[in-house]
Amino acid sequence: MNTSDKQFLSNSLKRIFVYLGIALTISFLVPFPASFVIIIITVFTISFMRRKMITKNTGINIKGMFGSTSSRPYEYSHVKYFCMSCGYQHKEASCPKCGSKMKRIG
Ligand SMILES: [Zn+2]
Fold first, then answer.
1. How is the chain split into domains, by residue range?
2. Do 84 and 102 contact (CB within 8 A), yes or no?
3. Distance in Å, CA 76 to ligand 1 centroid
4. Cα(80) to centroid of ligand 1, in Å?
5. What is the residue-averaged pLDDT of the chain?
6. 75: CA distance to ligand 1 center in Å?
7. Who contacts 18 (Cβ-Cβ below 8 Å, separation ≥6)?
8. From ligand 1's centre to the CA of 78, what distance in Å?
9. pTM of the full predicted structure?
10. What is the predicted pLDDT for the residue at 43?
11. Residue 45 — pLDDT band, cuts 50, 70, 90?
12. What does the alpha-carbon distance between residue 39 and residue 104 come to, in Å, rounded to a whole number?
């Protein structure tokens, strides 16, 4: 968590510097009222593109989360199977006591 926090901080710092650099460059190149409009448009475009990228990334993350929950060794370990003919609790395909393949979940 700490490393990702630091990464996030340095990323937002980088972004601020990028924005500042763009703003300075535009204000040097273009006279004031026009440069102001261009800076706003550029910043909006960049943040919009970033948001698009972020939603793409979280989409993948959500998929990964669902993938990990749907693989279910944990859930399986809590399900108990009982033999239908002798009532013996087991996890085998067929009952180790009487060999019956009929079982119920309890
Ligand atoms: Zn049995």
1. 2-71, 73-106
2. yes
3. 20
4. 14
5. 78
6. 23
7. 46
8. 20
9. 0.36
10. 83
11. confident
12. 68
* Pair 103, 83: CB distance under 8 Å: yes
Asked if 101 and 92 count as a contact pair (C-beta separation under 8 A), the reply is: no
pLDDT of residue 12: 82
> Is there a contact between 72 and 53 (Cβ–Cβ < 8 Å)?
no
Model confidence pLDDT, tens digit, residues 72-105 = 444 455 678 899 999 999 988 899 999 999 999 8
Helix, strand or coil, per DSSP, at residue 82: strand
Distance between Cα 79 and ligand 1 center (Å): 17
Residue 92 region by backbone torsions, left for phi larger than 0, else alpha for psi between -120 and 50, else beta: beta
Distance 82 CA to ligand 1 centre (A): 8
Tell me how far apart the alpha carbons of residues 106 and 88 are, in angstroms, rounded to a whole number: 11
CA of 83 to the centre of ligand 1 (A): 5
